[in-house]
From TrEMBL:
<dbReference type="Pfam" id="PF00027">
    <property type="entry name" value="cNMP_binding"/>
</dbReference>
<feature type="domain" description="HTH crp-type">
    <location>
        <begin position="149"/>
        <end position="223"/>
    </location>
</feature>
<dbReference type="GO" id="GO:0003700">
    <property type="term" value="F:DNA-binding transcription factor activity"/>
</dbReference>
<protein>
    <submittedName>
        <fullName>Putative Crp/Fnr-family transcriptional regulator</fullName>
    </submittedName>
</protein>
<dbReference type="InterPro" id="IPR018490">
    <property type="entry name" value="cNMP-bd_dom_sf"/>
</dbReference>
<feature type="domain" description="Cyclic nucleotide-binding">
    <location>
        <begin position="15"/>
        <end position="103"/>
    </location>
</feature>
<dbReference type="GO" id="GO:0003677">
    <property type="term" value="F:DNA binding"/>
</dbReference>
<dbReference type="InterPro" id="IPR036390">
    <property type="entry name" value="WH_DNA-bd_sf"/>
</dbReference>
<dbReference type="GO" id="GO:0005829">
    <property type="term" value="C:cytosol"/>
</dbReference>
<keyword id="KW-0805">Transcription regulation</keyword>
<keyword id="KW-0804">Transcription</keyword>
<dbReference type="InterPro" id="IPR000595">
    <property type="entry name" value="cNMP-bd_dom"/>
</dbReference>
<keyword id="KW-0238">DNA-binding</keyword>
<dbReference type="Pfam" id="PF13545">
    <property type="entry name" value="HTH_Crp_2"/>
</dbReference>
<dbReference type="InterPro" id="IPR050397">
    <property type="entry name" value="Env_Response_Regulators"/>
</dbReference>
<dbReference type="InterPro" id="IPR036388">
    <property type="entry name" value="WH-like_DNA-bd_sf"/>
</dbReference>
<dbReference type="InterPro" id="IPR014710">
    <property type="entry name" value="RmlC-like_jellyroll"/>
</dbReference>
Length: 239
């Protein structure tokens, strides 16, 4: 049995936000807790494995690679999120690769134990359904942004999302984003070239909106960045 520990607050909209404390405990007790260093692959695209991982701490990125070798960052997942649920549900090979961005702790739950959890606590199935619906809505919103805004705008909206979901407040009102994302990760998250990312970040730095370091972004003026993001996203909200 896995002992439930005090953990970071689940990310808003995450899988765990849809679970009661009792249902969460049922899931945690069904698995084995593991801690992974940054840069550790959890799943590989095409793997036949069917277990899921309930992320308790840290962040992971979900990527997929086309037959021509182009890799896209599909999503970032953090505390309270679940990864690997699609293969656990349909038994098909992994659609994406999942790797840790930071050191991460998660509970590994085998597919048969997940099935048993659903039988014991049916609200787990409802939480998975809501999680999948949120993922679909997120995907729809991203497609709308791709069709109705330029690359600079999409990157700014993405930075606002990173700031709100993963940022750590600093003295003076700044927010630190330290997930280890490269410029290429940022580019493939919003469907632009690395040159577009470099240009946009250069403009934001010149306006004292952000400060950057190696795989580090500090948002110096969060309200300014949010205002820029709102101006882009107002016409791209999914219904």
């Amino acid at each position: 049995m896995v002992v439930t520990l005090p953990l970071p607050e689940p990310v808003t909209g995450s899988f765990a936000k849809h679970l009661s404390p009792e249902a969460y405990k049922v899931l945690v007790d069904a698995g084995v807790r593991q801690t992974y260093p940054a840069g550790t692959p959890l799943f590989h695209q095409g793997d036949p494995t069917r277990h899921v991982i309930l992320i308790e701490d840290g962040w992971v990125k979900v990527t997929a690679t086309s037959r021509r070798g182009w890799t896209a960052v599909l999503a970032l997942r953090g505390p309270g999120d679940i990864v690997g649920e699609m293969s656990a549900l349909d038994g098909r090979p992994r659609m994406a690769t999942v790797a840790t961005l930071t050191e991460a702790t998660g509970v590994v739950i085998l597919s048969d134990r997940l099935d048993a959890c659903i039988v014991k606590e049916p609200s787990v199935a409802l939480a998975i359904s809501r999680h999948l619906a949120n993922s679909l809505r997120e995907s729809d919103r991203q497609r709308m942004q791709f069709g109705s805004s330029n690359g600079d705008g999409r990157l700014i909206v993405f930075l606002v999302d990173l700031m709100d979901r993963t940022g750590k407040p600093e003295p003076g009102g700044a927010v630190r984003i330290e997930l280890g994302l490269s410029q290429q990760d940022l580019a493939s998250s919003v469907g632009v070239s690395r040159e577009v990312v470099a240009r946009t970040m250069r403009v934001l730095r010149s306006r004292k909106t952000v400060q950057t370091g190696r795989r580090l972004i500090v948002v110096l003026q969060p309200d300014v960045l949010r205002a820029l993001g709102r101006s882009v996203s107002m016409s791209t909200e999914a219904p």
